Amino acid sequence: MRVAIVGPAFPYKGGGARHTTELAHRLAAAGHDVVIESWRAQYPSFLYPGQQTISEPEGEPFPGTRRRLDWRRPDGWWRTGRALRSSDLVVLVVLSTVQVPSYLGILAGLRGRTPVVALCHNVLPHERKPYDEPLMRRLLRKVDGVLVHTEAQAELARTLTGRPVRVAEMAAHLPTATAAAPGDGKVRRRLLFFGIVRPYKGLDVLLRALAEGPDDVALTVAGEFWGGLDETRELIRSLDLTSRVELRPGYVPAADVPGLFAAADALVLPYRTATASQNVWMAHEQGLPVIATDVGGFTSQIRDGVDGLICRPDDVASLASALRRFYEPGEPERLRSGVRPVDHGPLWAAYLDALTGN
User: Fold this and answer.
1) Is the distance from CB of 156 to CB of 296 less than 8 angstroms?
2) pLDDT digit of tens for each residue in the chain (358 aa)?
3) Paired strand residues for 67
4) Distances from the Cα of 15 to the Cαs of 103, 155, 216, in angstroms?
5) Alpha helix locations (H) across the chain?
């Protein structure tokens, strides 16, 4: 089968680009003829305040990658669609509604000649604007099928389109430079918040819970702050946490991940909402248990009381209780001993079957 994947790839960074690239590698290994149609310029910088591209790839780049798409050139969207008419399947990787106009241009160029699947990492954004739902409804009604990563996202997609919606658990697409750093088994009394800092990820809830939890536990916050640092710094000051919270703003290169995780006892994911996340898999690859809220796919990735703890979302008291439970005598060591990296081969096989309609 000739498969064209339209989505970000290196030099773009982050989970979306890694997933697109890993998907291409997996499809090619399964015997398909694969190309990635990626971007020279994906969208204006004011729509993505973080760092968009990187100089070193986070994994093995896919050799069949073309970078012809440009948000400033709608004529190029149509030409790309026309060029893909000979494909047996076109996969539109949907990370944001910002992509929808270009994808509609590609669909116009395809003119219905090729089956199209919208692979939605997020059917709608966590923090929505009035235009998000109309744009996504228009896109999903023009494709032939939709693939999402959770049943909740499938239910949402079905409110926007009558097209077939399939669900496949998102398998790992981790940075290749994340081999676990050697551990000494010591309890460090330090937790880690990792990744882009946005309101839906609940860092403010974690900081308030930290103030109510064990008073000798520290926190490292490593990632890009989309809304700036001022509000977070003021909250830290007001909670008297200045000596206990280390801020490491900015993109974290893959080479720095092992040391960052090795310095913590657990990864904390205090999300208010979630769809699918690689951070649980990443923590487990590093041998770390995870404390997370009961949202998205976290409860299917974490065995509560075995390799992590689950608490209620947007609930300071519930998270503070989980932190206290985690640091009961012997618990960090016990939960760490329960961590087992997952064999992602079967997950990827099921994912490819769902995508290609097998």
Assistant:
1) no
2) 999 999 998 887 777 888 999 999 999 999 999 999 998 887 776 666 566 666 677 778 999 999 999 988 999 999 999 999 999 999 999 998 989 999 999 999 999 999 999 999 999 987 788 999 999 999 999 999 999 998 989 999 999 999 999 999 888 777 655 555 556 679 999 999 998 899 999 999 999 999 999 999 999 999 989 878 999 999 999 999 999 999 999 888 888 889 999 999 999 999 998 877 788 988 998 999 999 999 988 988 999 999 999 999 999 999 999 999 999 999 999 999 999 887 888 889 999 999 998 6
3) 38
4) 20, 23, 33
5) 14-29, 74-83, 100-110, 132-140, 151-158, 203-212, 230-238, 257-262, 279-285, 298-301, 316-326, 331-337, 345-356
Domain assignment of residue 180, yes or no = no
pTM: predicted TM-score of the whole model, two decimal places: 0.82
Q: Residue 331 maps to which CATH number?
A: 3.40.50.2000
CATH of residue 348? 3.40.50.11930
Residue 237 lies in a domain: yes
DSSP string for residues in 118-158: EEES-SS-SS--TTHHHHHHHHHTTSSEEEESSHHHHHHHH
In this structure, is residue 24 part of a structural domain? yes
Considering its fold, how many domains does the chain have in total? 2
